[in-house]
Design brief:
1084 residues; alpha/beta; Rossmann fold; Penicillin-binding protein 1b fold; 35 helices
Amino acid sequence: MSSEFTEFSKKIDSLIKPGRLFKRLFENNELPLKGLTGSLKALTLKGLVESGSKTWVAVLPDEEEAEILSEELTGLMGESAALFPGGDEEADSPVVINPRRSGLQMRAIRGLLEGRCRVVVTGSRGFFHRFPDPRVLKSQCIDLRPGIETPFTRLVERLVTAGYSRESMVERPGEISVRGGILDIFPYTGENPHRIEFMGDRVESMRLFDVQTQRSIGSGKELMLIPAPMTWQQREHTILDYSDRGCVFIEDPERILEYGRKRYPAKDALSPEIMESKLNRIPKAIHHTLGSGDWIDIGGRSCSPLGRTAGEIREKICSMTDTGQSVTVVCASHENVRRVRRFLEVEEEPISGLSILRGPIRKGFRIESGSLTVYSDSEIFGRKTRSHRDTQFKEGIILRELSALRQGDYVVHIDHGVGRYQGLQKIRVQGLDRECLAVEYQEGDKLYVPVEKMERVQKYNSREGHVPALNRLGGTAWEQQKKKTKTAIQTVARELVDLYSTRQIIKGYAFSPDSAWHRDLESVFPHEETVDQTRAMIEVKRDMERTRPMDRLICGDVGFGKTEVAVRAAFKAVADSKQVAVLVPTTILAQQHGYTFRERLSRFPVHIEMLSRFRSRSEQKEVIEGLASGAIDVVIGTHRLLSKDVQFKDLGLLIIDEEQRFGVRHKERLKSLRENVDVLTLSATPIPRTLHLSLMGIRDMSVINTPPKERLPIHTEVMPFNEEVIAEALEREIERGGQVFFVHNRIRSIYGVSRMIRRLVPGARLAVAHGRMDEKELEHVMLEFGDKKYDCLVSTLIIGSGLDMPNVNTLIVHRADQLGLSQLYQLRGRVGRSDRRAYAYLLTPPFHLLTREALKRLRTIEELTELGSGFQIAMRDLEIRGTGNLLGYRQSGHIDALGFDLYTRMVEEAVREIRLENEEVETAPVPVDCSVQVNFTALLPESYILDESQRVNLYRRFAAANETEKIDGLLRELRDRFGPVPPEARMLAEIARLKIQGSRTGIKRIVVDSRRIKLFFHETWVDSFASSELFSRHIRTLLDSSPVPLRFLRGDVFGIQLDVPEDSGEVVDFTKNLLHRWSQLFTF
């Protein structure tokens, strides 16, 4: 916290006098309060907590308000404040289904048990949460720290009893892994997992490690492990029993007790009567938000609203300071402090009485007695500040999910095609054990791939749910498919190159540099730009200011900021008196873009209209006339914009959203429209960064892969189907003026589900939407829902893409267990697009009817966050679709046939070849593929790494390593994760080093036995150098400088053989040293 904010906080304390309030609380056992408006509530509670040594529990009626208060207190007090979110885990669930909620709960309880937490904030659900006796729970906790003696086997048994699951590798909260004397633990609190190394029964060291890399990232000091909630017995206590005779801050207690009356009978341990009697025995500060009484008025009031433009806001602030008030603007970051100062132009013209500082204030307030008014930066920019709390919570990330090989998975061998992985198998070759990947092909034929050649094999990835056909081992179909795909890729790549080249020579309009108006527009953008978004904006502006017409594609997920780039580009065009056409595939999207453009450009004299078939004939005629006369600056429309009767006076920019969704006839009209104007195309399906990089220089493209920094995470819960939850979720959303998506992906029974919802929430206005409805009827329903004429839309998966409805902030998905990860990811992206907390409920059959694997998959679904494994899987599926959209749908069949990874590699190669052709330059051969055969055992012993999938993962990484530094890093990782590295594993690393050195010196194959080395050179290397004088000179140098006699090998492949003397040490080390000397002559 800055010194400025500390002084500000002291000023607030001098006005509200928390010490005096605390004294009165203990004199009367009760402190009735009112006037805690906005963030004054958090500042007052902080003052009360710090006035004594008691532990506090703060209870608010609403869960969302509780989370906001917790965030503010965390900003003010650090780890002394914690949140206890409400909600019980399913009692019979063998895994924690909601790791984020469980982690926050466990952290709060641990803080109370350890006495480190001064205040815990909860809502009504948390207030009525059932707990075991705190003394019993504390006795069951496990304490670990370096130097402590504890029987290792007994410790593992205690952890399993405490609800920890024993796994081969720790990936999520609540898991442990045992490897020899190393114990990995991922606490349920959700913080970094710990790696504990034992010497016998003594804890030798404790380290933190990262689940993504599985590598240690720092030292650990001590660890207190609380048993999992699923193991808690005799839950007859509440969170009040954990505050150790502390104090309570409670807001509108009647609303909280009413919540309990609806759920708990009179004799229940959590009945409102019993809870009220507990409250009466505890010193409590009661905040009343409504009504009147003999209450202490803290004096907080809501701030008067500010204007919309910088000038209006500055004028309002000056009018307040002129009357003797002091105004403070508190910003969430240093960057926002700079933005506010720049926006209000205080550097040029300082405002006396105005302070701008950084601090954790979410909502402004004013205190009349102190003539003080406080605003947050969100109130200056017209938005609500978004939460950053979730960034503190580390969810488990499945490191292996995308690349892990499990028996039965489809794989692609570059030379032999698609097969089915059958596991690792040991085979004996020339008296040595070798571990190989067994791959099954058609008719049960098997291919055994040595682990040192694993780079030839990769997991098959394609569209979610697609099942490939197996190739025939030794057949010709695979090579034919590769040739066919390569031809198709080259055709597309050449088209892109030709289009790009043609575009370069056309002369267009060069737009003017940004003016003060542009900076005004950007300063009130209601979010903090991401790095990708900023880069895209710079690239678009740079293109527009050039004389050649822009033709840029922006790829990025829905909600990642593409529309804002389009708005700024449109404004740049309008500022130069040019017209802008925004073309979208559906009327709904036209309506949504119209709302966004009007909202963002409302401060400026920009005339925006919409053109679609849902406008009357007279309205359409008026818009068309306005476009022809130049009266309309920006038009947003469907394919109606492509009609021949639509003419522009001076079109300067064409923005196309989701071009792939337009038909062939529309695309032909688009070609004529875009000839001499700047074109900006938006695509909601992302593409991989590797493909983006390979296409740079033949397609102007900006990729936005990062979500908004301040996006409020969606509260996601997986739970068994429960009518009470459905009713509560609908009622809460409707009560706060929002809307609900209810997804039921069965047309046959969708109307029955609609009737059930009417029964549960009789007052709700419902609509039904599915794909078999008439197109106009469906569009009409969607438009009316967008116009807020319905509270809930019961729909199939048709809402899964393209919709932007900020007022919809609750999603309920029925039978979520039957949907794919990418489907769920896209569905969930339909909510959480405003400044309100969004909720997603994924309903399933009862947990006890599901297998443990199904439950784990559900937990993965719940981890569909930007950091979670589910996100990675969903994004892979979306990237495959995005690649098809970019390169043409005819490419989708090739992607399915070869797998996504091999396909993208072939795209990169094709583009590189075409570039070289066009540039007509010669280049040295690239490093070649080198194989190594040694007469020594080289593998990862099962006794060292028992889990097969982990061995496969490490074999793959050794085989794919292209730098010796990566080999060193892998050896360090082995030591860190599994203990001292055995000789067989070290030999595997040495083979990897030889492969790297060989590939850089043009060597195709290295054969090493006990006293002989054979080196075979690659044909491309020989072809490039064999006829040159340089080659002859190098060969003479080799002959003269070689420490041992060498001779050339006869045959189809050029090679050299060396016999290593007995006194030359290890033959592998000798080979490495030899190749190192040679690399100085032949490195590419």
